[in-house]
Design goal:
single chain, about 700 residues, mainly beta, five-stranded mixed beta sheet, 4 helices
């Protein structure tokens, strides 16, 4: 059911009113905090806890896995306002976002899409329905966004063969502070963000983050609006007991652009500024999230954790999504008049126990959740029209097919895990873990078809070893196993009833080093992954889909930060990915030896920051190699290199003004494809922002 655009949920409003008296109190000036993140350890992360990769409390330096991230200061410094903007600055991560997958679809280590690259917030991954993830979208309110590369099923369950992205929230503090951001720029873009934290009485503290955004976009129907509220109330009756009550609400109305038509497999650049959707088209995502978290340190050995959560998501699409260009007539034929509604609710609990046993750190737990999903649509998506290719009359969305609730599904998940970090000498760390997931799925057809039930299960494991050459340098190796669904678990259908989870395994080796005198740090990782039981065709009956395909990947990633001197700092990474199908039959041919669609062989990022007094200039480059739009490798998404720039002026200890230039050379490029259309990336944009912290 569609709701009016209200950026604050009633629960959030009550929390805001509760905190209002504290916000009115006299503030205390804190030490200077520079938006550029220009500190002694700017860009450094190896000393941070590896919260995304392990529950045992190891640092990133000591964890035998590839972990990378972007801090809040780096996101402000670079002007990264979206999670996709920030995370694709890390090694090997590419975006495959489209309006049909919620905008949070990524590629990593040869695997692309929401069924292989998971998205979590504070370690909690929500249910994926119909190939869609839509939260968290914006970076405001997050202290750090991190990525664990390679199979991550041990931490997050199924659907994480390529990587898992984890957005880590800013936490309440007993020390009062405030922050604000306001910006405006090209295409009538405007943003505002507010954040506050501080004490409430003797045992409570709070954290509030509010964000709103609007833009007219580059073309007709490109206008977008979004708003969110994030609220945390922390109760600490004693130093050993901590309770967090969390209430969030978000509403997104993204641009209603489904791509630019192609001709003979290439995008028609002359049509880059046109949009062929209907004037009354709709894309809308609304999310409500409630969590209650408890952490109790029973004694020096035992710590108990529990997290109870309830999420609700409503999504709606009503669009014309397929376009065929006729260059002779100068027209575009429109089809696929789709209306789709998602109604998703998920309730669950995560219980864990941490044991500190001398050189042994043990984490064990049990996770349970129940997700209910109703899918409504107007299948078979009839309707057609023809419009001018230039300055089209958008018209209205009219379909001969009624939109009806089509199916209800329910997915019950149970998982148990145990993980241990054993520091058996001053130089060696052994990390081992085991997890078992079970899924109980049921589907009820509301119009036609056969209802069915399905049980799935998977076991994941990890064994890793880190050798610390000295306090700053370590070598590591790890072997891990994980599993992916062949399609989104919440929307399994009868055609996929007999399929099991796809199994994958990875071998990875690497090195991590912090440079002397705080000059920087660097990491390198080499890996090999093989995934079995992907969907292929029966060689004797090509019309029948079976499991039996395989995909293999070999690659290398290098990244780091270098402080050349007190004024000049470099940050960068490069990746090489050699992915191929070893065995895959599709309608149309044998794909063995082909590169999977959406996978780039090379990616690279580089930032240079130069600071003089209160001024800092930054220049960034982003390269994504050629990708293919299909497994047949007949349609290419060309490689591109983009340049971004930023200029910061620290007006005083609390205020910084910034000017951002994105796609500085106005490069024409495509991010991804949608059907036969190409999703053209934004052209050159400028944005002026003010950031305040006090």
């Amino acid at each position: 059911m569609q709701r009016p655009f209200i950026p604050f949920h009633p629960v959030a409003l009550c929390a805001a009113l509760l905190c209002a008296p504290a916000l009115a109190q006299t503030t205390t000036t804190l030490p200077e905090v520079r938006v550029s993140g220009e500190t002694e350890q700017a860009g450094a992360q190896l000393r941070l806890p590896a919260a995304t990769a392990s529950r045992t409390g190891l640092s990133i330096q000591d964890t035998p896995a590839s972990v990378d991230g972007v801090s809040a200061d780096q996101m402000l410094e670079r002007g990264d306002v979206g999670v996709a903007d920030a995370i694709t600055r890390t090694a090997g991560l590419t975006s495959s976002a489209s309006p049909g997958n919620g905008g949070l679809s990524f590629g990593s280590r040869g695997f692309v899409g929401v069924n292989s690259v998971g998205v979590a917030e504070d370690g909690l991954a929500t249910g994926v329905a119909a190939g869609t993830i839509s939260y968290p979208a914006e970076t405001w309110g997050y202290e750090r966004i991190e990525v664990l590369r390679g199979p991550a099923s041990l931490m997050y369950g199924s659907g994480t063969m390529g990587a898992t992205i984890n957005a880590m929230r800013k936490q309440p503090s007993r020390e009062r502070s405030y922050e604000a951001m306001a910006s405006g720029g090209s295409d009538s873009t405007g943003r505002i963000g507010l954040g506050a934290t501080g004490p409430l009485g003797e045992i409570m503290s709070y954290r509030l983050d509010v964000y709103g955004q609007r833009s007219d976009g580059e073309r007709a129907l490109d206008d977008s609006r979004s708003g969110k509220f994030m609220g945390t109330l922390r109760i600490e009756p004693s130093r050993d007991l901590q309770i967090d009550l969390i209430a969030d609400h978000s509403l997104q109305k993204p641009a209603r652009y489904w791509g630019t038509p192609s001709l003979k497999g290439s995008v028609v650049e002359a049509l880059r500024g046109e949009n062929y959707n209907a004037s009354d088209s709709i894309i809308r995502y609304e999310e409500d999230r409630l969590k209650a978290k408890l952490r109790w340190r029973a004694n020096d050995v035992v710590t108990v954790r529990n997290e109870l959560f309830h999420f609700q998501t409503d999504r709606r699409w009503r669009n014309i999504e397929a376009y065929a260009y006729n260059p002779v007539a100068g027209t575009v034929a429109r089809s696929s008049y789709l209306e789709i509604l998602h109604d998703l609710e998920q309730t669950g609990n995560r219980f864990g126990v941490d044991l500190a046993l001398g050189r042994h750190q043990v984490a064990a737990g049990w996770e349970v959740s129940n997700a209910k999903f109703r899918g409504s649509n107007n299948s078979p998506y009839g309707g057609s029209s023809v419009v001018s290719a230039i300055n089209p009359q958008h018209g209205s969305w009219v379909s001969p097919d009624r939109t009806l609730p089509k199916f209800d599904t329910e997915l019950r998940q149970n998982a148990v895990y145990i993980e241990e970090a054993w520091k058996f000498s001053d130089h060696w760390v052994l990390l081992a873990g085991l997890r078992r997931d079970s899924y109980d799925f049921g589907r009820t057809e509301l119009v036609s078809g056969t209802p069915f039930d399905k049980d799935l299960s998977g076991t994941s494991a990890r064994l890793g070893l880190t050798y610390k050459i000295d306090a700053r340098t370590s070598l590591y190796a790890q072997y891990s196993r994980g599993h992916d669904p062949v399609t989104t678990l919440l929307t399994l259908n009868l055609a996929n009833r007999d399929f099991t989870l796809s199994q994958g395994r990875q071998l990875e080796v690497g090195m991590k080093q912090q440079l002397a005198d705080n000059l920087g740090e660097w990491t390198v990782a080499a890996y090999e992954i093989k995934k079995d039981d992907i969907i292929t065709r029966d060689p004797n009956r090509p019309a029948i889909s079976v499991q039996g395909g395989t995909q293999s990947v070999k690659g290398m990633e290098l990244g780091g930060v270098l402080r050349a001197n007190a004024a000049l700092r470099f940050e960068g990474n490069v990746s090489y990915t050699d992915a191929q199908f070893d065995k895959l039959l599709e309608v149309g041919g044998n794909r063995a030896g082909n590169r999977p669609s959406g996978v780039a062989k090379q990616t690279a990022n580089l930032w240079a920051h130069y600071r003089i007094g209160p001024w800092q200039a930054s220049l960034g480059a982003r390269h994504v190699g050629k990708r293919f739009a299909n497994n047949a490798n007949t349609t290419e998404v060309p490689a591109y290199t983009l340049f971004d720039a930023a200029l910061h002026w620290q007006f005083n200890a609390n205020t910084t003004f910034s000017l951002f230039a994105r796609n500085l050379t106005d490069r024409f490029y495509t991010n991804a494809t949608y059907g036969s259309q190409f999703l053209v990336g934004p052209g050159r944009q400028f944005e002026l922002a003010a950031n305040l912290r006090f």
